[in-house]
Specification:
elongated; 0% strand; 65% helix; Four Helix Bundle (Hemerythrin (Met), subunit A)
Length: 185
């Protein structure tokens, strides 16, 4: 018996190339992208502004002017330092710690966003899996918010409740994506 994929059954009167409920998965993915942007500004940028003040950056004016005479002032907010570079090493310990917690909240999101979007799209593609995919994506989003709040407000140990919720949602979405693909055979 030759190997063939079953076509996705769609209602004849739909204008969509997919089940209509899949639109909600797409909407949640768009909201997740907005949540990433909010994380960048509400958590990471807030810590950057707090740490790399104008007064703090003045200590680098001579070095910067010597290296870049056409741009004598160091960049605002410590760019391009991500918290552990030349500027970050000069921060007081508390500011360095807060800046790096803010960075990790965003970078961890960046490390996972492609994967969670990919498995969510696959998991939600089958009509009988769509609602589960939406629920797991919503759980991931809530876990992500708890992760970022905990990490930036109380430090790395406080990220664990959010991390557990996210990890379970990712695992569920991964399993569901295999189920969704399996239903195509």
């Amino acid at each position: 018996m030759p190997f063939r994929l079953r076509p996705l059954a769609l209602p004849a009167d739909t204008p969509y190339p997919y089940e209509q409920n899949f639109t909600w998965v797409l909407i949640l993915i768009c909201l997740l992208a907005i949540q990433y942007m909010v994380t960048m500004y509400a958590f990471t940028m807030r810590m950057r502004i707090k740490s790399y003040t104008v007064e703090f950056m003045k200590q680098f004016e001579n070095d910067h002017k010597e290296a870049f005479p056409e741009r004598p002032s160091p960049p605002k907010f410590g760019y391009p330092d991500a918290g552990c570079g030349r500027y970050g090493k000069a921060l007081p310990y508390g500011d360095w710690y807060d800046m790096n917690n803010g960075q990790r909240a965003q970078i961890n999101f960046l490390e996972q966003i492609t994967f969670i979007i990919g498995v969510s799209l696959i998991a939600g593609f089958q009509a009988d899996c769509t609602w589960y995919a939406m629920g797991l994506l919503a759980a991931y989003s809530v876990g992500r918010l708890l992760f970022s709040l905990g990490y930036t407000a109380l430090g790395p140990n406080a990220r664990i409740p959010g991390a557990l919720i996210m990890d379970l949602a990712i695992l569920g979405q991964l399993v569901l994506s295999f189920i969704s693909v399996g239903k195509m055979f």
